[in-house]
Design brief:
By secondary structure, the protein is mainly beta. It has a two-stranded antiparallel ribbon. Strands 3-4 form a two-stranded antiparallel ribbon. The longest helix is centred in the N-terminal third of the chain and has 6 residues, at 25-30. It has one helix and 14 strands; from the N terminus they run ββαββββββββββββ.
């Protein structure tokens, strides 16, 4: 937002576009999405496309505007998926977070002894202690969730790796 100085030398405190035009109330509200626009040339990455109805810069208008993801039409944002068709085989689109996951509920898990870990979106073996975890790549019991994971601390990982606290995977 810029401040303008009128020809009479009075400072105009009303919001202005970078080109000197006044912002109206609808543009100020839309500024949360991106600056106002009338064409793509007025937008810059990551909000490089002008949404013609709302007249604001957005990340995408079509799937071709998104590298590997798809364009979610209500937010005009690039996301991993908007439906199961956007995910690899055996994966489901979690539309609450626009991500491809193994499961979104316990019914999505078909292996015996597994339930859906909703935080990570994976079917996981349940546990009460490390002794309950039988999968070689998930030997640790995350007792707060009751699921077997790869690691809880860096010492559970190979030398030089760390334990990602969001996924409980060694990175």
């Amino acid at each position: 937002m810029l401040l303008g100085c009128g020809s009479d030398g009075v400072i105009d405190l009303s919001p202005m576009e970078a080109d000197g035009g006044q912002l109206d109330a609808s543009t100020e509200t839309a500024a949360e999405t991106g600056p106002g626009c009338s064409n793509d040339g007025e937008c810059a990455p990551p909000l490089a496309h002008c949404e013609p109805v709302k007249e604001v810069c957005v990340e995408c208008l079509t799937n071709t505007n998104c590298g590997e993801g798809v364009c979610e039409p209500s937010s005009n944002a690039c996301v991993a998926c908007t439906g199961n068709q956007d995910c690899e085989e055996q994966m489901i689109c979690d539309t609450s977070q626009w991500r491809c996951v193994e499961c979104i509920d316990n019914g999505s898990c078909t292996e015996d002894g597994t339930t859906c870990d909703l935080v990570r979106g994976v079917c996981a073996e349940t546990c009460g202690s490390n002794g309950d975890c039988t999968e070689e790549d998930k030997p640790q019991c995350l007792q707060t969730s009751g699921f077997c994971v790869q690691c809880l601390t860096p010492s559970d990982c190979e030398l030089g790796e760390s334990c990602n606290p969001a996924t409980y995977q060694c990175d």
